[in-house]
Structure formats: C-alpha cells, structure tokens
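Severity: low
Component: inverse-folding endpoint
Summary: output formatting inconsistent between runs
Steps to reproduce: submit the following structure tokens with default settings.
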C-alpha cells in the first residue's frame, strides 16, 4: 500500500475526529493495529475495507480507491488540486452523510434547492415553504 493512501486514511480519520481504535471498531475485520499499519503504508487493505473507511470518515470512496490504484504517483482532480487537498468541515460531513442516506426523492429536492433547477431564487423559496408546510402537517401543527 502506498504512503500516499496511508496519509489520506490518517487525514480522513483525524478530520472525522476518530482514533485508530474507534475507526477499527466501525470497520469490520480491522484492528487498531491494522489501521496503524495501513496509515504507515505497511498493510494492504481490500477495496471493501477502503469503502468502509471512506463511509465512516466522510470522504469519498473514489478518493481512497484512486489513491490505492495510483500508488505514489499522486492523482489530480479536474480542478488541478489533489483529492487530498479537499477539506470538509464537520458540518459538511454531516450533510454528505445525510444526503447519502436520503431516498432518491429527497436527493432530488436537495439538488433543486442547491442548484436552482430554473435558476430562480423564488423557486427555491417556494420549495422550502412547501417543505416546511409538509413538516407542519406531519407534526399536526
């Protein structure tokens, strides 16, 4: 396993506020020692393990899998930045997790709000109002 991948795993783990032991408890089949070895580039992890680490730390699976494939050569994103240069706040990680767990209809609504399907701020405002009314109806208020 490459040192680059190990560094990505370490960064993702620390950004998620997890110790090696905490991450190991969340990833089936890995111990804290395994995490430590992987972070130092001394242990090969399976794709399934990398995917689980990505899920638990809030990074994209692609960033870890690409790093595993490219080894020490280093990859660049379309923006010219390395995938390891992208940092997410804790709040952004929570939003990403919530989005990933949402059903397809909820994801579509989020996309419409954030991307403005017709480019109109009024459309986003109307949609938020409709959502709030739906929540009120569910709560019986």
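Observed output (run 2 of 3):
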């Amino acid at each position: 396993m490459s040192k680059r991948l190990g560094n990505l795993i370490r960064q993702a783990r620390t950004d998620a506020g997890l110790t090696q032991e905490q991450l190991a408890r969340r990833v089936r089949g890995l111990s804290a020692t395994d995490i430590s070895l992987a972070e130092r580039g001394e242990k090969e992890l399976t794709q399934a393990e990398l995917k689980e680490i990505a899920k638990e730390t809030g990074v994209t699976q692609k960033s870890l899998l690409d790093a595993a494939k490219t080894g020490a050569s280093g990859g660049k994103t379309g923006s010219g930045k390395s995938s390891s240069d992208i940092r997410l706040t804790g709040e952004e990680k929570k939003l990403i997790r919530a989005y990933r767990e949402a059903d397809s209809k909820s994801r579509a609504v989020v996309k419409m709000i954030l991307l403005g399907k017709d480019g109109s701020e009024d459309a986003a405002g109307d949609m938020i109002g409709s959502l709030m009314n739906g929540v009120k109806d569910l709560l019986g208020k």
